[in-house]
Amino acid sequence: MLPTTSVGSRSQGNGALGPRDAARHTAGAKRHKYLRRLLHVRQMDFEFALWQMLYLFTSPQRVYRNFHYRKQTKDQWARDDPAFLVLLSVWLCVSTVGFGFVLDMGFFETIKLLLWVVFIDCVGVGLLIATLMWFISNKYLVKQQNRDYDVEWGYAFDVHLNAFYPLLVILHFIQLFFINYVIVSDSVIGYFVGNTLWLIAIGYYIYVTFLGYSALPFLKNTAILLYPFALLIMLYLISLACGWNFTKMLCSFYKYRVK
């Protein structure tokens, strides 16, 4: 799960593996180690994962500075500890159950919603976004003089998880306290509060994603990853002018899913 590998593949004269083959073997071994640690809870550093979750809100740059430190000490950018993924999954499950409670769903409806959110919204969409960003960054953002390096898919998925966590907390936890009493009402305050939370959540996602790719020294023009901010603000203003309520749409969509 290394984000950078040499693209040379020729074997050395002494029969040793070439740089690319060696990188693949190393990545495979680290991926196996990562998946194996999922079964050993005591080997996970949950305290450090909680630290990362806190700083993704207050100072996400510090999180990516730690990624730099990992590259220097372990020769990899991507996480080698699944604790962050485990805690994110717990957050997702708890907040989805909270959504089911707020929307007055029954037990089986809540379980169905949980399966949809975990396997489609989180895993499915996450894999799609990570793959898309992996392709775009390697195709268009690698510096010409650094063509010997590429962004590995594992790091792209890590960046997605980092960006997804603040969005999850804002839309699936903080928002729960306002849905029934403020947001789902037909008043101006209702869709203003709801849409503003969406603006903040998606804005966090864009910004943390930008920080993730700008942290890689062999990428160029990563500022283009901030361009969606213009579209986001424009959509936000249009939604207020037209009275669209994104949270109300989400609630209706969730209820439709579990019918």
Automatic annotation (TrEMBL):
Residues 1-14 have a biased composition (Polar residues). InterPro entries: UNC-50. It comes from Aegotheles bennettii. The chain crosses the membrane at residues 83-102, 114-136, 163-184, 196-219, 225-247. It is a multi-pass membrane protein. GO terms for cellular component: Golgi membrane; nuclear inner membrane. The lineage of its organism: Eukaryota, Metazoa, Chordata, Craniata, Vertebrata. This is UNC50 protein. Pfam families: UNC-50.
